[in-house]
């Protein structure tokens, strides 16, 4: 996996309208139930879908990407103040030999204004950057609602309502903003696939919600092995994707797609914004009894999420692209 790049097919990821317009989203209504079935079907068949979610306005998204650009435009020594040693998914990452065209910043609990302010204080001294903090916090908070809607629908659709409260407090949020830019030097263009700016991987947590600037490039692999290129069909779209922990917790019911980012003939940098819902570090991912039976034997040993992250990441980047089965598969 990863060495031979197959061109994306004409397939599209499913589209689900989770905006409040034209119908309000209320649990228990026929509209909710119909969307719930669509979410389950999309997760089972693709492990991802495009969600329209109009709560986050076009203006806010544009302000967020201005803030993200401002962040990456800081001088390198300033950005390096946010490095968190020995982690891949937190703090600043850039100039990495395995990911030469990728930079990112990760921070925990972006739905709390204080966390974003603390992060901004590290980079902009003298009071941080209030505009940045406000924009990043607002979008994170809004799309955490989308995450909770999706998870509520998933739990209901598998008859797991009794775990709802426990499940919602089992998780935490992590934000990562990313910049991809193919450097214009001939040496790098001789590599196997110069456009592959983020290698094939699965996400480690439960749910990932992503949006991007106008530069595309995100691609998913279907269960059948075909690559699908994602192009948002509406300015209020987010991509919602299932990660390893959701696959394990639901005892394999949902697909957890391989995905990657390739920049195809674009000279502009690509920026993306990802809210990652993960189990809290100390929590154990263990499939509920309701999802284990003769037809669905337990697929994974229960595992502590933090231990999984430790084995799945190394300082050198992602150690393997499918560690879940390798470490915990039964
Ligand atoms: O930038 C993107 O759209 C994808 C990022 C991604 O897959 C990740 O950070 O895990
Ligand atoms: Fe990812």
Question: How does this model look, in words?
Answer:
The protein has one domain (15-287): Sandwich (Jelly Rolls). It is an alpha+beta fold and 330 residues long. Helix 2 crosses helix 5 and helix 4 crosses helix 5. It has helices at residues 30-45, 58-72, 76-79, 113-123, 130-157, 164-169, 186-189, 244-249, 305-312, 323-328; strands at 15-17, 48-52, 91-93, 102-108, 171-180, 196-201, 207-212, 218-221, 227-229, 237-242, 259-262, 270-279, 284-285, 303-304, 313-314, 317-318. Helix 1 links the parallel strand 1 (15-17) and strand 2 (48-52). Helices cover 32% and strands 23% of the residues. The mean pLDDT is 90. The protein is globular, with a radius of gyration of 19 Å. The strands form four sheets. An eight-stranded mixed sheet has the order 1-2-10-7-12-5-4-3. The two termini are 22 Å apart. It is built from ten helices and 16 strands. Residues 176, 178, 198, 203, 210, 212, 218, 259, 261, 272, 274 line the site of 2-oxoglutaric acid (AKG). This is 2-oxoglutarate-dependent dioxygenase DAO. Keywords: Iron, Metal-binding, Oxidoreductase. 2-oxoglutarate-dependent dioxygenase essential for auxin catabolism and maintenance of auxin homeostasis in reproductive organs. Catalyzes the irreversible oxidation of indole-3-acetic acid (IAA) to the biologically inactive 2-oxoindole-3-acetic acid (OxIAA).
